[in-house]
């Protein structure tokens, strides 16, 4: 893992001191809420329906056990005993008092964490594959590049007042678990013609009101040019992105209105100029220095097959489901990447109590090299677990409601906080997620349905990623009533697509039945258990689902 | 072109010192007659603005970009300093070939959250090598000023009352640990020996 040096410590401490002063000026009335707003946003403080919310950065979703334990401590001391993991691999506390926030930031700084750039019109927390550094299919670990981008973008003087927020994602594997094509900039690590490491660069993807899949502007960018190229993109965007309408201010609109070819030309022209200065060329020794922090842990050699693991599978159907869905192959034989589901049946997606955070921290110490990941699917991940240890780990997780074997299944639902917390929402999301989870919760049924990603947003800002849900639900307000529209066929992976609206929306009372109708239609029409829901929708189109939901036209 | 002192606050601590040395005069002079924050203190503005159609007066004259470009040959004959105001929507590239005739560039911030002039400032300093005064005008608030300085601004037209009060009190809310080179300011970036890509001089 990356460790702060003196410079990083100085930076964070100084930033906390600065924000403490700003909070004091707000509390004393010197700053109005309007003047305070951009300052608090850059420090991760939102004003929600009922209270301030603090969003803490978990850079590229990697946490140490010490850090996770501190998050548990903060949840217990300053919040109501829980936190909420988000789709940007971050953690939100929903109930902190403004006066306590500087103290929380001090606690975070003591474990090399902060809340910087988790909001505001700046470059946000860079996200990546939650299996980075562990997955068997990886070309290179994306986290060193995400860390370099994090450092470079921290309080960037030119790019802190962009037209709108800006999100970068990096994947190191061809199987895209980081949804890079729905980001402002998506980076895919790849080998170049010369055998070196570089990136395919995508620009202008996004969700929100106007979902768009990104355009590839570069098939191969050598790694030494990463910052120069990103700076070129940022400058084109900062100068030319729309500022007249908040809803048309993201780079996807600029790309769309300017045209992909012309925007590529502008970026390349700017890149030539930036590159000339040599200011941002990344020296190989610096890449090596950062990469060294992310060196693979020294795992004891193991046989590929674990007797204990296989025996536990044979012994318990619940464990077998956990092993099948929540344990992913590791680079090292005899090890697995374990997903700790924060989606218990009927629970609130992404929530974890202070005790649960501490338990996972302890288990990371015992079984996973003290390392934890946060996935954008709102689960936790223990990246380096010996298969021999999975049964014991599972038993401990089960004691704390953390052993649900549903990763990637129909009950592994992403939901935004919705009208229960959010000032922007038109509808509740959490209760719909809970109802769906209860409806589909039976293990045999989930297994039969197979891979199916349901994503729920409580308004068109799409924080619940409904556009890329295999089944997406969008909450809207229809004359004072919460209504949910259903989209089908979205995907955030390397075959990224935006889901299509299937027809008129359903009320909160009807929507769970409607989703069930969609799922049953799939089960009836699929070519076999190997044809996933997404594949079936892509083959069949909307028509059979429309007919099932609304009757034959 | 007049010469001016190097950045008064090459380091935040120096900025604070510069103000404190002047503290006595500050309380008397920090009023609207001294609209500029420059050289670590409030100073008078020696420039006269000439908008479209207005006569260009004697002495240092400040013109909009469009007018400057249209009349630049006639203006060059005046034998007095020329300044140019560039709005965020205007392309700084158009001014670039004429910078040797210009002693002041004013970049405006119609709203503090409009960061376009940050890019223009960096381009002026870094790409076009502009060495004259670079002034921020418009919605200039204290919390943006350290970032403006890093992009190359060295003077600030400050109207906002709380911002003026804080500057007068020696506040400069910088986080003096810079992760990225800008090539645009003369202040010391990050310590030697760490992050070579971040400290390369411009």
TrEMBL record, chain A:
Q: Which Pfam families match?
A: NIR_SIR, NIR_SIR_ferr
**Occurrences of domain Nitrite/Sulfite reductase ferredoxin-like (ranges):** 52-110, 334-399
Q: Which InterPro entries match?
A: NIR_SIR_4Fe-4S (IPR051329), NiRdtase/SiRdtase_haem-b_fer (IPR005117), Nit/Sulf_reduc_fer-like_dom_sf (IPR036136), NO2/SO3_Rdtase_4Fe4S_dom (IPR006067), NO2/SO3_Rdtase_4Fe4S_sf (IPR045854)
Is Iron-sulfur one of the keywords UniProt gives this record?
A: yes
- Superkingdom of this entry's organism? Bacteria
- Keyword Oxidoreductase listed? The answer is yes
Positions of the Nitrite/sulphite reductase 4Fe-4S domain: 119-271, 412-548
Which residues belong to the signal peptide in this entry?
none
* Keywords of this entry: 4Fe-4S, Heme, Iron, Iron-sulfur, Metal-binding, Oxidoreductase
Q: Which GO terms describe its molecular function?
A: 4 iron, 4 sulfur cluster binding; heme binding; metal ion binding; oxidoreductase activity
- PANTHER family found in the cross-reference section: BLR3264 PROTEIN (PTHR32439:SF9), FERREDOXIN--NITRITE REDUCTASE, CHLOROPLASTIC (PTHR32439)
**What is the name attached to this protein's record?**
Sulfite reductase
Organism field: Methylopila turkensis
Q: Which gene encodes it?
A: cysI
TrEMBL record, chain B:
Q: What is this protein called?
A: Oxidoreductase
Query: Which domain of life, per UniProt?
Result: Bacteria
- InterPro entries, from UniProt? UCP030820 (IPR008318)
């Amino acid at each position: 893992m990356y460790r702060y040096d003196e410079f990083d410590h100085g930076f964070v401490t100084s930033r906390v001191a600065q924000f403490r002063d700003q909070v004091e000026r707000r509390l004393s009335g010197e700053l109005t809420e309007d003047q305070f707003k951009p300052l608090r946003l850059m420090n991760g403080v939102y004003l929600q329906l009922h209270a301030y919310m603090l969003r803490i950065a978990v850079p590229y979703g990697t946490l140490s056990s010490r850090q996770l334990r501190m998050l548990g401590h903060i949840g217990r001391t300053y919040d109501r005993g829980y936190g909420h993991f988000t789709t940007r691999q971050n953690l939100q506390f929903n109930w902190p008092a403004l006066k306590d926030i500087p103290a929380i930031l001090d606690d975070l700084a003591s474990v090399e964490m902060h809340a910087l750039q988790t909001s505001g019109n700046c470059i946000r927390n860079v996200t990546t594959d939650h299996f980075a550094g562990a997955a068997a299919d990886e070309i290179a670990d994306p986290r060193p590049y995400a860390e370099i981008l994090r450092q470079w973008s921290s309080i960037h003087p030119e790019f802190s007042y962009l037209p709108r927020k800006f999100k970068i994602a990096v994947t190191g594997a061809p199987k895209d678990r980081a949804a890079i094509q729905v980001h402002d900039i998506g980076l895919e690590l790849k080998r170049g013609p010369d055998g070196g490491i570089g990136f395919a660069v995508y620009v202008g993807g996004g969700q929100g009101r106007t979902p768009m899949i990104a355009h590839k502007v570069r098939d191969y960018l050598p790694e030494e040019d990463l910052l120069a190229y990103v700076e070129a993109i940022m400058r084109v965007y900062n100068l030319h992105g729309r500022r007249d309408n908040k809803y048309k201010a993201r780079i996807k609109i600029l790309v769309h209105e300017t045209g992909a070819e012309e925007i590529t030309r502008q970026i390349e022209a700017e890149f030539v100029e930036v590159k000339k200065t040599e200011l941002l060329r990344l020296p190989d020794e610096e890449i090596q220095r950062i990469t060294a922090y992310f060196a693979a842990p020294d795992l004891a050699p193991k046989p590929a097959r674990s007797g204990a693991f296989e025996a536990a599978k044979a012994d318990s159907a619940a464990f077998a489901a956990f092993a099948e869905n929540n344990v992913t192959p590791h680079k090292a034989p005899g090890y697995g990447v374990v997903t700790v589901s924060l989606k218990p049946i009927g629970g609130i997606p992404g929530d974890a109590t202070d005790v649960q955070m501490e338990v996972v921290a302890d288990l990371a110490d015992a079984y996973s090299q003290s390392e934890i990941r946060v996935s954008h699917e709102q689960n936790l991940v223990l990246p380096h677990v010996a298969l021999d240890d999975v049964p014991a780990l599972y038993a401990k997780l089960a004691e704390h409601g953390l052993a649900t074997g549903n990763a990637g299944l129909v009950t592994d639902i992403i939901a935004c906080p919705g009208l229960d917390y959010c000032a922007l929402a038109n509808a509740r999301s959490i209760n719909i997620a809970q109802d769906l989870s209860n409806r589909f919760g039976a293990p045999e049924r989930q297994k039969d349905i197979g891979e199916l990603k349901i994503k729920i947003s409580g308004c068109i800002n799409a924080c619940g990623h409904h556009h890329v849900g295999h089944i997406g639900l969008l909450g809207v307000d229809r004359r004072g009533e919460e209504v949910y529209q259903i989209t089908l066929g979205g995907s955030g992976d390397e075959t990224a697509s935006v889901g299509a609206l299937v027809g008129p929306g359903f009320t909160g009372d009807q929507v769970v039945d409607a989703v069930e109708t969609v799922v049953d239609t799939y089960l009836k029409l699929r070519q076999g258990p190997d044809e996933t829901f997404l594949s079936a929708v892509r083959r069949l189109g909307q028509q059979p689902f429309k007919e099932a939901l609304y009757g034959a036209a | 072109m007049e010469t001016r002192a190097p950045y008064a606050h090459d380091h935040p601590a120096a900025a604070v010192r510069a103000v404190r040395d002047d503290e006595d005069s500050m309380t008397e002079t920090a009023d609207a007659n001294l609209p500029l924050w420059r050289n670590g203190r409030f100073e008078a503005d020696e420039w006269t603005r000439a908008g479209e159609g207005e006569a260009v007066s004697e002495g240092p004259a400040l013109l909009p970009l469009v007018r400057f470009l249209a009349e630049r040959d006639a203006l060059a004959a005046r034998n007095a300093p020329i300044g140019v105001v560039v709005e965020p929507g205007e392309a700084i590239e158009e001014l670039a070939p004429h910078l040797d005739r210009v002693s002041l560039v004013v970049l405006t911030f119609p709203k503090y959250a409009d960061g376009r002039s940050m890019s223009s400032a960096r381009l002026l300093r870094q790409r076009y090598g502009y060495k004259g005064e670079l002034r921020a005008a418009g919605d200039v608030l204290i919390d943006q000023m350290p970032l403006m300085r890093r992009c190359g601004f060295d003077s600030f037209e400050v109207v906002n009352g709380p911002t003026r009060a804080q500057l007068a009190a020696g506040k400069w809310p910088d986080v003096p640990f810079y992760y990225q080179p800008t090539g645009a300011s003369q202040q010391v970036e990050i310590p030697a020996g760490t992050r070579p890509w971040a400290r390369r001089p411009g």
